[in-house]
Write a sequence for this structure.
């Protein structure tokens, strides 16, 4: 994979949908190198050291500008609110695409994509790539409530079958991913499972996939400072191919890792506070 680019992007569009701000940003060279599962690290207001990692929701052509990045921001603190409030025409410093992308099957297979909240963003371009390869795509989309459900209408166009689950029951089934994933996986007869979301969700998906004999890939989101691997500030405990426990960097060796390689109990017990 080519080295990431550091560039100045321009906000072409900004739209609030539910709990999220959807930004369209043209960033020369970054969109052309994008693969589903990679992300960008964006500098915030010039006063904060830690950059904000944003999943790439997609890439689309914008007349006169070429391909542009579709980014999803959940404004929950000063940093993410600053990003969400960038007006059309604003300049933002960003680096990307960063990280290890989802691996695609070599042959057409049945797949299940599981996403929760804004972290479901990379699953939409992934679904497109899988369909291009003749794979059957099933999507399980989850959120605490309707406002935090990402792109529910787009999901219907992205997958053969869509299951929606919300914690409060405002849309779809009431419950959590852990409550329904085993049944959805069995119904889809999926051989490959992809997941993006909070650590408990990823752990539940990886465990169910392993029990079913399916291969899983999980996009593990860790708070970042640099996003390029230099600071070693995003530790991810895994088990290597040799069976030896080690710690890798979520921003470079990840964010996508095999679900059966992550030491989930240790990861859940060592979640640092994410800069907002």
């Amino acid at each position: 994979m080519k080295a990431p680019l550091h560039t100045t992007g321009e906000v072409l569009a900004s739209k609030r949908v539910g709990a999220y701000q959807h930004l369209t940003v043209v960033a020369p060279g970054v969109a052309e190198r994008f693969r589903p599962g990679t992300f960008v690290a964006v500098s915030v207001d010039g006063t904060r050291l830690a950059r904000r990692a944003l999943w790439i929701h997609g890439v689309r052509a914008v007349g006169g500008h070429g391909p542009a990045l579709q980014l999803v921001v959940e404004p929950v603190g000063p940093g993410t609110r600053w990003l969400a409030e960038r007006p059309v025409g604003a300049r933002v410093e960003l680096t990307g695409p960063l990280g290890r992308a989802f691996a695609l099957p070599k042959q057409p297979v049945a797949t299940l994509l599981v996403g929760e909240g804004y972290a479901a963003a990379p699953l939409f371009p992934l679904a497109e790539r899988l369909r291009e390869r003749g794979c059957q795509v099933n999507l399980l989309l989850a959120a605490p409530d309707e406002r935090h459900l990402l792109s529910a209408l787009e999901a219907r166009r992205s997958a053969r079958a869509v299951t929606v689950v919300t914690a409060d029951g405002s849309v779809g089934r009431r419950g959590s991913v852990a409550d329904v994933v085993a049944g959805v996986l069995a119904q889809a007869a999926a051989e490959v499972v992809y997941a993006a979301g909070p650590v408990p969700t990823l752990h539940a998906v990886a465990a169910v996939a392993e029990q079913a004999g399916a291969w899983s890939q999980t996009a593990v989101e860790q708070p970042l400072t640099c996003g390029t691997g230099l600071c070693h500030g995003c530790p991810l405990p895994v088990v290597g191919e040799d069976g030896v426990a080690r710690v890798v960097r979520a921003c470079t060796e990840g964010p996508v890792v095999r679900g059966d390689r992550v030491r989930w109990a240790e990861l859940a017990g060592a979640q640092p506070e994410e800069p907002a």
Summary: The chain has a mean pLDDT of 91. Residues 15 and 22 are 5 Å apart (CA to CA). The chain is about 20% helix and 35% strand. Helices lie at 30-33, 78-84, 123-132, 152-158, 177-188, 199-212, 264-268.
